[in-house]
Design a protein that fits this description.
The structure is a single chain. This protein is mainly α. The protein folds into 2 domains: 1-72, Multidrug-efflux Transporter Regulator, Chain: A, Domain 2, CATH 1.10.1660; 74-147, no CATH class. It contains 6 helices and 2 strands. The chain has helices at 3-10, 14-22, 41-55, 60-71, 78-109, 122-129; strands spanning 30-31, 37-38. A two-stranded antiparallel ribbon has the order 1-2. Strand 1 (30-31) and strand 2 (37-38) form a beta hairpin. The longest helix is centred in the middle third of the chain and has 32 residues, at 78-109. It is elongated and about 70 Å long. The chain starts with a helix and ends in an 18-residue tail after the last helix.
Length: 147
């Protein structure tokens, strides 16, 4: 199959297929007499694997590691479990950061009633006066000022 068909069957774009080839995640395909890329079932399976990993927000290094385990002669899948545990840890950390961000934004939102002129808006004032994105000293106070 040509690149367009492979892309359609895996739900990605042809330039994504070429990118994965360039990154070494997908083997170079055979070429036709007209120099068109010709892909087979092994390319389809590998690209499907890569796309599923990306859907789980794995980065290219993680995918490379999984593919290396898949292509290697490892006796068991302990390496796969270790990689997934690490990825789960990263997701857990990201969730914690996003939760803290949501709380900070909610506290900031409490600074405004929505009925004052913009120049007197509590949110605008807090954004101007505080380091809301900084360390502990930049966190919003529990009882945020209203305005």
């Amino acid at each position: 199959m040509r690149i367009g068909e492979l892309a359609r069957r895996t739900g990605c774009r042809p330039d994504t297929v070429r990118y994965y080839e360039k990154e070494g995640l997908l083997a170079d395909p055979a070429r036709s007499d007209g120099n068109y890329r010709l892909y087979d079932a092994s390319h389809l399976a590998r690209l499907t694997f890569i796309r599923n990993c990306r859907a789980l927000e794995m980065n290219l290094d993680e995918i490379r590691a999984l593919l290396s385990l898949k292509d290697g002669s490892a006796g068991d899948c302990v390496g796969v479990s270790v990689l997934l545990d690490s990825h789960i840890g990263q997701i857990t950390e990201r969730i914690a950061r996003l939760t803290a961000l949501r709380e900070q934004l909610a506290a900031l939102r409490e600074c405004c009633t929505g009925t004052t002129p913009v120049e007197e808006c509590g949110i605008m004032r807090e954004l101007e006066e505080r380091d809301v994105g900084g360390g502990e000293e930049g966190k919003m106070p529990p009882a945020a000022r209203r305005g």
